[in-house]
Amino acid sequence: MGPWRCLLLLLPLLAPALRAQQQQHLMEYVERRLSLLEERISQWHDQSSRYSTELRDFKNQVLGMLEAAEKEREAMRAEAESAAVRVDRLEREVDYLETQNPAPPCVEVDETLMDKQVATAKQRKNEKYTKLTDCSDTIASVRAMKILKRFGSASGLWTKDAAGGSEKIYVFDGTANDTVYVFPRMREFTLFSATRKAARIKLPYPWVGTGHLVYDGHLYYIRQQGPSFQVIKFNLANKTVVDSSVFPAEEQIPVFGLSPSTYIEVSADEEGLWAVYATKEDEKNVCLAKLDPASLDIEQMWDTPCPRENAEGAFVVCGALHVVYNTRPPSRARVQCVFDVSGTLAPEDASLVYFPKRYGSHASLKYSPHERQLYAWDDGYQIIYRMEMRKKLEV
Asked: In this model, does residue 290 exceed pLDDT 80?
C-alpha cells in the first residue's frame, strides 16, 4: 500500500479534529472582537458620563450667571427709579427755591427811559386801555405739560385757531417758508409721522420768523420786504389774501434776544389781536400794540418795561403781556416780566411762572384763550402747557 493511499484512508479520521481546531480559532477571534467592542463601549460610556457631568456643570454655571445678571438688573432698575424720584424731588425743591427767591426784576432803572416813557405817554402812547371784555384772569402756574411728538426742524410754530370752533392743527415748519401743513384733528397730527395726513396750503408770499397766528378762519403772518415788515391777512377758506399792511414801526429789530428770526409776534387773547415788536429807538425793551383784526390798523401802542435781552417768546392773556426768558445755553424758561395794559395787575403781583425743563428753548408760544393753554415748539418737539389761572385782584 502506497503512502497516498494511506493518507486517503486517514482523512476521514483527521477531519473532525481539523474542524474542531477551526471552530476554536473562530471562537477565539469572536471573543477578541467582543472584548474589543466591550472595551470601546466602556470608553464611550466613560466619555459620555464625563461630557454629561461637564454639561451639567456648565448649565449650573450659566444659571448662576443669569441669576446674578437678573439681580444686577433689578438693582440697576431700583437705582434708576430711586434716581428718578430724587430728580423729581430736586425739581420740586428748585421750583420752591425759585419761587421763594425770584430772579432779579426785569425792569431796569433807567432815568432816560423813564423820562422818555413819561413824555411819550403825554403824547399818544401808553394811554389807558379800555377793556372790551370782563376777563380778569392771570396765570398762576403751569398745571400740566404734554409732549405730543417731534416734527420738523428746531424752530417752528404749531397752533389751533385761537378764536376756537375748529379742531384743525396748523404747522409752520422753520423760520422761512411758504407752505403750511394742516392736520384735520389733533389725533392725526399726533399719531401719524411726516405729513401723510396733512393738507398743504401754499402761501403767496413766504413768511419770516415764528410770530404768526390763526384767528377766526384767517392766517395772520409776517412777511419781510426789504427793511420793512408786512402783516398779511390770509383767508384759509378760499386761499386768498384779504388784506396786508406795512407795520408802522421804523428800524425794527428782533423782538426777542434769543429768537433772532422773529421781528413781530402776533398774539391773540380774550381781548382780540396784539402785536409784540421792538425798534432801534428803544432797543432794550419790548413794545406792544393792539391790532384791529378786520383792518390790521394799530389801535393803540405801549412801551413796556420788559427787556429784549434773554427773551425767547411772549403771549398775551386778558390784556397782560407775558414775556418768557431763558439763558444761553438754554435752561428753564420762565415768565419774568408781565405788563398789564389796563393797569389792573401790578408787576409785583404777577406770578413768577416756570416751565418744566425739557429740551432747549421755545421757538414759539401760542396762547389759546378758548382752551386756556399754550402750544409750544421746543427744539422740534411740540408741547402743550395747561395753565392754572387766578383772578388778577386775588391776594
From this structure: yes
